[in-house]
Amino acid sequence: MFATGIENSAPKTGGGRTRRDQLAECGHYDRWREDFALVRDIGCTYLRYGPQFHLTMLGAGHYDWSFADEAFAALNRQGTVPIVDLCHFGLPDWLGDFQNPEFPELFAQYAMAFACRFPWVQLYTPVNEMFITAVFSAKYGWWNEEAKDDRSYVTAIKNIVRANVLAMRAILKVRPDALFIQSESTEHFHAECPDAMHHAEFRNAERFLTLDLNYGHRVDSAMYEFLLDNGMTRDEYHFFLSQNLRRHCIMGNDWYATNEHLIHANGQSRWAGEVFGYAPVTRLYHDRYHLPIMHTETNCDEGPNGDEAERWLWKQWAGLMHLRQEGIPVLGFTWYSLTDQIDWDVALREKRGVVNPRGLFDLDRKPRAVGHAYARLIKNWKGVLTSHDSCLQPTLAAAS
């Protein structure tokens, strides 16, 4: 599945005063027809995309589908398969933030309403990057509730993953053959010195929390104590263990140069750059969950010479192909996103209006070097993988 995505992050920042709607900031609302044409022309048949949660769900049972109706009809007509992203880092104003215990059930209602309105859609990412959503909102204090304490963090985790699980169950009532691609940040933590080893071990267990709960995989003992010490009840934990949705799931792995971290003796961390790289870290996730994989996000600034992003693309592709040659079922690749983004160099925390040159196209919708490179990659490899790869069909058949 060769894919791209239209960046639709929408967290709130600045004490809840500022909504960072990337569809608006990157011009999609005015140029969505043009954007869809670019997806088709570059050769992508899959698109990570969704209606904005905060603009669509106006209240419990009250929805405004006007933009979604027009946009999804256009995608359907042109034959682009959407991987529908229903919650990308932010909630409607009336729902507040991820500390709200009513969020999971209300989000499941929203997911079912979408599935009923668009029954032809099969592929979903109900909650994008559950781990990053919780970390940035309730551990680092950057978005939404802007909390920095363990209890808020655990509350965010359990509400976010419960929302994802309930949304999957709701969608399956409408579309029993639905498939769910958990686009999740793939992380690794390295110890800088011996005194940092226990911090690195803790963080390397913590990175699995959202997927462990989502897939009903038992967390390790340190994580179990951490969850229960910070507000998760045994009944809540056993709710996650009782779910049986794995056969509908594809594990999506997102990978950036910032996904490996160096941990210091005091527990603080900083980005380490690429140490292991995509393939070795993704293998750790596959060894844990034994699910088919899709590379669901990557990008890189084009760099001072304009070719860094192109080199990054080929490096990611090489890692993906290496996994496939080892027999790991990797079903797709995604450059994210279609166009450049705004202020992601500061994780949307400050509204500076800085254009991050990470898209296949710039904000004038002119192709970047990596856009040309991705089009070539798709053209060269699409027929080969479709005609000669026998691992895809059994995996998808078993999932559905």
Automatic annotation (TrEMBL):
A Gene Ontology biological process term: carbohydrate metabolic process
Gene Ontology terms for molecular function: hydrolase activity, hydrolyzing O-glycosyl compounds
Regions of compositional bias (Polar residues) in chain numbering: 1-11
Region described as Disordered: spans on this chain: 1-20
UniProt keyword annotation of Hydrolase present: yes
Alphabetical list of InterPro entries matching this protein: GH, Glyco_hydro_1, Glycosyl_Hydrolase_39
Swiss-Prot/TrEMBL keywords: Hydrolase
Protein name according to UniProt: Family 1 glycosylhydrolase
Native source organism of the sequence: Lichenicola cladoniae
Taxonomic path: Bacteria, Pseudomonadati, Pseudomonadota, Alphaproteobacteria, Acetobacterales
